[in-house]
Structures are given as structure tokens and as C-alpha cells.
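DM from R.C. (forwarded with permission)

"hey, sorry to bug you on a friday — could you get me a structure for this? deadline for the figure draft is monday and I only need the backbone to look sensible"
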Amino acid sequence: MQDPATLAARQDSDSVSLTGLQAVLNGTLIATQRGEIAVEALRPGDKVVSRDRGLVPLRWRGEVTAETRLSPEDTPILIPRHALGRNLPVRDLYLAPDQRIWLRGTEFRDLFASHEVLVPARALAGWSGITQVTYLPEPSYTVLLFDQPEIIIADGLQIESRRPEHAIASLTCTGRDAMFSLFPDLERLAGRGAPSRRALSESETGTVLSRQKRA
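My reply, with the result:
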């Protein structure tokens, strides 16, 4: 398997949009068999802590670097320390806007018949100090992929890492072509698999947050 490469996302007609990308900002610490390790230092084969399956081998890692100022839709979501509960996360955490976060609560069960859900980070902006940052100079995101959907731990917060085909499907056609050109191993990893939890849309997440505000 080739070493991780860097994908330059430029703001033009041939750019790879970050919309739909599930990724964390470089510097984020991921729970592994060897303790917390910066996401950009992980390599395929490293054993990562999974909520459902204990230790699972990392299948693929890739970096996406924005060379210019990101559009408002692509700038990271900042989840401050303790925003979602004690040590959730344990330190300020920056996620790609569409990175999905694992959450659990009776409010989800009451509305969606599932007490465990996946929520896009952007849907939480404006709640409990969570914001979408306006600018970060040349931020670099890292994408982690496994053989099946996994709930992994990033700075103490549980997030989803998707199967390769789900990550590919989230990109535009132009984006997929660019990804396959830079990461040829990614195409052959695609297969089939179901989401690890019920994934809420932004509007569904908003319904939950509105109910909590009224409570």
C-alpha cells in the first residue's frame, strides 16, 4: 500500500470539495493500542481503539490540505473542551464540517427509535459553544478508513470512520477522479457495508437541539 499523500484542495472548478468529507484536523490525538497518537502520525496496520470491536487495524490514511483560504462551508468545526460533557472532548477538537459524531441519549430514542446516533459536526454549530471557525491558515485534514464503519476516539470524543466506498461516494465526480488519481489504492478498497449507527441529518439534529433548549 502506498504511503499517504497530500491532496491539494483549490477553490476552482477542478477542486476537490471538502463537503461530505469525514476527517479531523491534523494534531488530533487518536486512541490506539500504543496510547494517544497524533492522527497524522498513524500508519496503515496501526491498531486503533474501536467502540464496537476493540482494537482494529487502520486500512488507509490520507491527508487533504487546503492551500488557500477555505470557503465558509469547508472551515473546521471547533468543539471546545467539555462542550458535550465531562472530557467530551478532553481538549479543543477541530473536525471537518461533515465529520459525524457518535452521541447517545433518550432524546434520540424518543424521536428516532435509536438511542445511539451519528450527527454531522456542522449541525452542532451554535450549541454549547460549538462554532465553525472563520479561518485557519492552510489547515490539513486527515481521513482514516477501516474495513468497516468504526466508532473511534478522537481527543476523547467518539466519531465515525467510514468504509472506503462511503468516503468516495461523499465526493463530487471530479473529486472522486482526483482522489483515485492521487490515491490509486483507494479504489480497490471499495466494497459494501452499512453505516455503524443511524445517521441524523442537520434538520433532524436541529429538532433534537430545539427540544433540549425548550426543556
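R.C.: lifesaver. The longest strand covers residues 60-66.
me: no worries. The CA atoms of residues 52 and 151 lie 7 Å apart.
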